[in-house]
Amino acid sequence: MRRRKVASPLFAIMVLLICPRATRASEGSEQVPLCDLVRNPAAYNGLRLSVKAVYSYGYEWQELLCTECRAEGKIWATFQTDAVGRLRRQLNKAPRDQGIVTGKFTGVFHASGGPFGDGTFRFEFVIEQAQQVRVLVRDWKTGLAEVGACKRAK
């Protein structure tokens, strides 16, 4: 019986050593400027973070971005599978099929394992929660450069 008690802590330590990404992602979320993720991706890989950003989406794309750093690396946005229902409620003001919204997005950032999306995205952000969502563009008459990206996300 005592052997079982010893095995449990050893198993837990082995899991922590083998799966650092999972343990880092389960920690609380730190708020980080989106451009910091693009400029220093290794420092944030696998971390659960909150970012204020623009979410642009349409038929075959969805990304989190700031126009200030988009050329340095694009971030594919996807939704955590078990959070889809909650995210639909949080994004209920967003245009249905395509649009540009701003907000605070919480999730896990992945700097490796790509390319993501259509192959042009170096990074991925798995969104778990969306807050302070505000619609910026509904009709596509406003270009992405005119949106102001992170400046308007604050």
Furnish the topology, listing elements before pairings.
Blueprint: H1 2-18, H2 20-25, E1 30-31, H3 34-39, H4 41-44, E2 48-57, E3 62-65, E4 75-79, H5 84-90, E5 99-110, E6 123-137, H6 144-147, H7 150-153
Parallel strand pairs: 1-2, 4-6
Antiparallel strand pairs: 2-3, 2-5, 3-4, 5-6
Question: What's the number of extended β-strand segments?
Answer: 6
Please tell me the total number of domains: 1
Structural class: alpha/beta
Strand order of the largest sheet: 2-3-4-6-5
CATH class bucket:
Mainly Beta
Proper CATH architecture: Beta Barrel
Q: Give the uncertain stretches in residue-range form.
A: 1-27
Q: Taking all residues together, what is the mean pLDDT?
A: 77
- What is the 3D shape? globular
Helix content, binned percent: 25-40%
Strand residue percentage: 25-35%
Major sheet characteristics: 5 strands, mixed, barrel
Gyration radius from CA atoms, angstroms? 18 Å
Notes on the protein architecture:
With 154 residues, this protein is α/β, with parallel strands linked by helices. It is built from seven helices and six strands. Strands 2-3-4-6-5 form a five-stranded mixed barrel. It is globular, with a radius of gyration of 18 Å.
